[in-house]
Amino acid sequence: DTGVSQNPRHKITKRGQNVTFRCDPISEHNRLYWYRQTLGQGPEFLTYFQNEAQLEKSRLLSDRFSAERPKGSFSTLEIQRTEQGDSAMYLCASSFRTSGGAGYNEQFFGPGTRLTVL
Amino acid sequence: QKEVEQNSGPLSVPEGAIASLNCTYSDRVSQSFFWYRQYSGKSPELIMSIYSNGDKEDGRFTAQLNKASQYVSLLIRDSQPSDSATYLCAVASGSARQLTFGSGTQLTVLP
To answer: What is the average pLDDT score of chain A?
Structure first.
């Protein structure tokens, strides 16, 4: 399977604990995105990496959230001191930026990590 | 203010009919537009992308784009019960080309 993979698929934690999610993008993709989706809503953008550089962060990404993409391969998203409002599906997507042109950037999503904060 | 709006659902169509899904967006400089299908409890799956004004057909799916009206639509011909899902309209913007999604339209195809 050469798609985007995410682990774990489900995480249940108690309020105040730290959690970390992992995303492995499609191997040749240089762009990696994190989104968050709550029930009944479309995904909301959190942050973006081009190779190993984190180039964009949403206002949704509070200082309790941190993301890394060492060596431009897999990425991790950590949430510190979790709150019940953090309960959501965390989605990772990857794409390949074409050289020149508009870089159309079709994004392919992983299966997501569903976080429940008790 | 929501930047991508989709027609409110749920939408029900009989099997074999045409399902029409609509979307408007506010960012005039957007260049890339996408339709994703999301089954309950699953992640979004890309089904169509469109970048130029006009129609783009792929099998039973046709995407339509009108940049002057800031309008994107998706037609599903010969709808099947397996098409029952939530359809998300997404618009790429910014230097990161991050996607802004609508809230989705839930489609039910009745056998």
So the answer is: 92
By the 10 Å C-beta count (0-12 exposed, 13-18 middle, 19+ buried), B106 is classed as middle
Residue (of A76, A82, A77) closest to A12 by Cα position: A82
Looking at the complex, does the CB of residue A31 fall below 8 Å from at least one CB of chain B?
yes
Tell me, yes or no, if A29 comes closer than 8 A to chain B by beta carbon. Answer: no
At B10-66, the pLDDT tens digits run: 999 999 999 999 999 998 888 899 999 999 999 999 999 999 999 999 999 999 999
Residues of B in contact with A61 (CB under 8 A): none
Separation of alpha carbons A93 and B18, rounded Å? 30
Residues 6+ apart with CB under 8 A from B29: B93
